Amino acid sequence: MSLKIDTSIPCLDLKNQHRSLKEEIFEAFEQVYDNTAFSGGRFVAQLERSFANFCQVEHAVAVNNGTNALHLALVVLNIGPGDEVILPGNTFIATAWAISYVGATPIFVDCLEDTWEIDPKKIQEAISSKTKAIIGVHLYGQPCDMNSLKAIANKHDLFLIEDAAQAHGATYMDQPIGSIGDLACFSFYPGKNLGACGEGGMITTNNAAYSERLQRLRNHGSVEKYTHIELGYNMRMGGFEAASLSVKLKYIGLWNEKRRDIAKRYFGEIRNSNIRMQKQEEFCDSVYHLFVIIVSDRYDFLQYLAKHNIQGALHYPVPCHLQEAYSYLEYKVGSLPNVENLASHCVSLPMFAELSNEEVSHVIETLNNYSINGQK
Predict the structure, then answer these.
(1) How far apart are CA 107 and CA 110, in angstroms?
(2) For residues 81 and 114, what is the distance between their CA atoms, to the nearest angstrom?
(3) How many CA atoms lie within 13 A of 248 on its CB side?
(4) Tens place of pLDDT per residue across the chain (376 aa)
(5) Which residues contact 289 (CB under 8 A, 6 or more apart)?
(6) Taking the alpha carbons of 126, 321, 281, 154 in that order, is the dihedral positive or negative?
(7) How far is C-alpha 129 from the geometric centre of its chain's CA atoms?
(8) Could you give the angle at the alpha carbon of 302 between the alpha carbons of 298 and 308, nearest 5°?
(9) pTM of the entire structure?
């Protein structure tokens, strides 16, 4: 079922952010233009240094999107055909694509019922002699339990990758996301908390050898022009994208705090037994890329929101293991019950830093007045 919703409070609105930064970003664009540094170059290098500092890591390697960040992370770990990589079933499909791109097999596991993060017990059950890595996804901006994942990875001699596409600035036990796994992968898709004027991605690591090889892989396997020492890719970040991100990186802390303020109001003021929210663990500090709730009849709920001039959205309504592209893996309905329940009942509420107090109040009041299949 699909809905055509004409609303006044969108689930995401990028216009105000870009309107306020237009002059600063255009000045940065002019510098890129004057230096003709359109692909890679000094503005990308500047962003890499700043983002490494932001994540408190030694190395950050910029690429052209978050999907390719995940792809190259697996390449640099020499994961390929015959290998298995464990990941949650409730993630954007790009997490799984990366595994398939290198010829490995994605092994989807269930999430926890309350936090909706990957279930460490299910990881343990899924490990085989072919398992080479675990990808922990920081879902909706909330870190998964990295200590549990690290303990499993260390016990079985596995690599641990953070899919941090939604978690720019989040922390786990006061440690920045992007600094915990062997490698971490970020997306700068425009709708992210830190989004480019265009597309972009980043891989962070404290391993100098990984960083050196990643830089080579993204540039046709080359460290010297026309000299190629391994199969490489054309995955460089552009100068304009890097320049826009360098401007925005200065404001990400403020934007994340505004998201946290909105989330605090949602958690504290939405009091409706028909609505269930993601449990927040004390050991982590989410950046609320998305604010997702569960309702029993989401299409009734979305229609109700639309009638009150609020846009809801659906994120991952079909879980990865039930996508047609992965039918060959022979997962069935019921294979991952918590993932499937979330996929069938999730709705994303408006969440972006520029939401006004009045808009947030309207969302809260509307949700508190919601009754199943009824209009209050």
Answers:
(1) 10
(2) 34
(3) 28
(4) 444 444 589 999 999 999 999 999 999 999 999 999 999 999 999 999 999 999 999 999 999 999 999 999 999 999 999 999 999 999 999 999 999 999 999 999 999 999 999 999 999 999 999 999 999 999 999 999 999 999 999 999 999 999 999 999 999 999 999 999 999 999 999 999 999 999 999 999 999 999 999 999 999 999 889 999 999 999 999 999 999 999 999 999 999 999 999 999 999 999 999 999 999 999 999 999 999 999 999 999 999 999 999 999 999 999 999 999 999 999 999 999 999 999 999 999 999 999 999 999 999 999 999 997 654 4
(5) 140, 141, 166, 167, 192, 193, 259, 351
(6) positive
(7) 29
(8) 145
(9) 0.96
Asked if residues 148 and 155 have their Cβ atoms less than 8 Å apart, the reply is no
**C-alpha span between 322 and 311 (Å, rounded):** 26
Half-sphere exposure of 90 (CA within 13 A, CB side): 29
Query: Dihedrals φ, ψ of 4, to 5°?
Result: -100, 110
Per the structure block, which two tokens stand in for 50?
A: 């700043």
Of the candidates 310, 309, 311, 333, the residue with the CA atom closest to the CA atom of residue 321: 333
**What secondary structure, in 3-state letters, does the chain show?**
CCCCCCCCECCCCCHHHHHHHHHHHHHHHHHHHHHCCCECCHHHHHHHHHHHHHHCCCEEEEECCHHHHHHHHHHHCCCCCCCEEEEECCCCCHHHHHHHHCCCEEEEECECCCCCCECHHHHHHHCCCCEEEEEEECHHHCCCCHHHHHHHHHHCCCEEEEECCCCCCCEECCEECCCCCCEEEEECCCCCCCCCCCCCEEEEECCHHHHHHHHHHCECCEEECCEECCCCCECCCEHHHHHHHHHHHCCHHHHHHHHHHHHHHHHHHCCCCCCEECCCCCCEECCCCCEEEECCCHHHHHHHHHHCCECCECCCCCCHHHCHHHHHHCCCCCCCHHHHHHHHHEEEECCCCCCCHHHHHHHHHHHHCCECCECC
Entry field: residues in the chain: 376
